[in-house]
Design a protein that fits this description.
mainly alpha, 434 Repressor (Amino-terminal Domain)
Length: about 120
């Protein structure tokens, strides 16, 4: 199950803090049952403020590579683009990207347009 990947990453961050599940939840005012389900991949990764609160509880510094990786993994597991990368023009080009990944590249002008959109970021 895709949710398991996020749960494994969440658990790895918690264990890095050397906190049991119960202690982690106690310190951060979280429900152990919900965090356990999240770590086991039963619950999907949260979005928005809840995701950011979990990152903070896991002592992941906002804006760090680790923070982006944590948030991007949550988005990917949910099958969504990260919130900060949602751009209508870029989303419209995703089918060309998918074709390329399947071995059917888009015309050069469309590929150049996609590259230009990505470079604007």
């Amino acid at each position: 199950m895709a949710h398991e990947r996020f749960g494994q990453a969440f658990k790895a961050h918690r264990l890095r803090l050397q906190l049991s599940l119960r202690k982690f939840c106690e310190v951060n005012g979280l429900e152990p049952g919900n965090i356990s389900k999240l770590e086991r991949g039963i619950l999907p990764p949260p979005k928005g403020e809840r995701l950011y609160a979990y990152a903070k509880a896991l002592r992941i510094a906002e804006g760090s590579d680790e923070w982006y990786e944590f948030c991007d993994l949550a988005s990917a597991v949910r099958g969504e683009l990260p919130e900060d990368l949602r751009d209508d023009e870029l989303v419209a080009q995703l089918p060309a990207l998918f074709r390329t990944m399947r071995g059917d590249p888009p015309p050069d002008d469309q590929l150049a347009h996609i590259v230009a959109l990505l470079r604007k970021r």
